[in-house]
Amino acid sequence: MTQAMTQAGTQAGAPGGWVAVAGLGPGSAALITPEVTAALAAATDVVGYSPYVARVAPRAGLTLHPSDNRVEMDRARHALDMARAGGRVVVVSSGDPGVFAMAAALFEALEAEPADRRGTEIRVLPGITAMLAAAARAGAPLGHDFCAINLSDNLKPWSLIERRLRLAAQADFAMAFYNPRSRSRPDGFARTLAVLKDACGDARPVIFARNVSLPDETIRVVPLTQATPDMADMRTVVLVGSSRTRIIARDGAPIVYTPRSVLP
Fold first, then answer.
1. CA-based angle 214:217:221, to the nearest 5?
2. Segment 163-200, tens digit of pLDDT
3. Most CB contacts within 10 A, which of 17, 124, 127, 186?
4. Nearest 5°: CA angle at 194, between 70 and 179?
5. Residue 247 contacts residue 205 (beta carbons within 8 Å)
6. Phi/psi of residue 90, each to 5°?
7. Separation of alpha carbons 110 and 115, rounded Å
């Protein structure tokens, strides 16, 4: 922590209180950064969605605060309040906390506070997001320009998702999709595939990466024309190549990559 940040935190609440918003990576403990490990070792409290908090080992002096997936703002306010009371609070997300995760929620909660309560010391500690872990397993499908789209319509309308899908296809981006299909949204990914098949009109590769970095990891590569909704669930990140993405066939798993250059 910097001296300036520590002074800001002290002015906002009890001395020593801070919040770190930390990314736990895609699943394997080996992919948690040393910076995040150090923050967890110094924490008095860990806040987050229950499955993510369960990845943090209990110890003396540490209180775990698991909660439901749809109470992000309550979780953020709770973390800020504990820090103002002197707590050393780590808010955990899977992957990277700035990619469809808790960093934005924490800053939304902070912005809603009166100006004299915004001085809490806050750090965002990056993590390896599922998109990058999946790409590394497959080769380098995000090797040129790409975009990431959250397919959940919980916080935005489907019409906006569809518009972004079509524009991304028109721009010939490689794409990474988070939250493709859940029990409460069983039809959204089918609609996504229909849009892509209509907009792309080719057999570009689609990578279904489930439970990346965990013992039951599966990586499946199929042409867009053969992709089906049942190939994805909430533990799957989906990568779609651009029209220039290539597959290198070889013994074992193929390598999928997008060349670095776009030539006329």
1. 150
2. 999 999 999 999 999 999 877 777 889 999 999 999 99
3. 127
4. 20
5. yes
6. -110, 120
7. 9
Q: What are phi and psi of 225, to 5 degrees?
A: -65, -20
DSSP single-letter state for residue 240:
E
State both tokens at 79. Answer: 């973390």
Q: How far is CA 145 from CA 163, 260, 263, in A?
A: 19, 9, 14
Under 8 Å CB-to-CB from 25, ≥6 apart: which residues?
31, 32, 33, 94, 95, 127, 128, 133, 213
Token readout for 171 is 């721009």
What is the C-alpha separation between 241 and 170, in angstroms, rounded? 13
The C-alpha R_g of the chain, in whole angstroms, comes to 20
Name the token pair of 52: 């993510």
The tokens for 234 are: 């909430």
